[in-house]
Design brief:
By secondary structure, the chain is mostly beta strands. It has one domain: Sandwich (Immunoglobulin-like). It contains 1 helix and 11 strands, in the order αβββββββββββ. The chain has a 5-stranded antiparallel beta sheet, with no helix packed on it. Strands 2, 3, 6 and 11 form a 4-stranded mixed beta sheet that branches. A two-stranded antiparallel ribbon has the order 1-8.
Length: 146
């Protein structure tokens, strides 16, 4: 019986990594920033949501990443868990009127809010491949609206 205790202790020590109790991210992330324009003009105060498609993978696709555009329409993504960037994968991209900023930045409230066409709200019209080296050119040139 005494010989089994070290074996049980060793087995118990291996359980947390096996069952996902590790603090290491399960997915690989990369920096993503870019700019959103509508009919050639910057879109300030818009929310942008990246949702990984998980192509060729299991049903677990990973967490979404989100940002709010600044006055020039620029954004930098942050994952829901707080990790900078987005999961390296193909993402469905939704762009919709935002709440005007996040908790870490001054509120962006456009004087004349831009009306983003509904076709960009659901993530079906736009996709983006997040490369393993990250990118600063995740640019979206939207068309339509007034």
């Amino acid at each position: 019986m005494a010989g089994r205790f070290p074996l049980l202790l060793l087995f118990a020590a291996t359980l947390p990594p096996v069952f996902g109790c590790s603090s290491e991210p399960v997915f690989n992330y990369a920096h993503v920033s870019g700019k959103v324009t509508l009919n050639g003009q910057p879109v300030p105060g818009a929310s942008i949501l990246f949702t990984p498609k998980g192509i060729g993978k299991s049903a677990i696709t990973g967490e979404f990443s989100m940002a709010t555009t600044d006055q020039e329409g620029c954004f930098t993504l942050k994952a829901a868990s707080g990790i900078d960037g987005a999961i390296i994968d193909v993402h469905e991209v939704a762009i919709f009127p935002g709440r005007g900023g996040d908790d870490s930045e001054p509120t962006v409230r456009p004087v004349n809010p831009v009306r983003i066409p509904r076709k960009y709200h659901d993530g079906k019209a736009l996709t983006f491949q997040v490369p393993s080296g990250g990118t600063d050119v995740a640019n979206f040139s939207l068309e339509g609206g007034k």
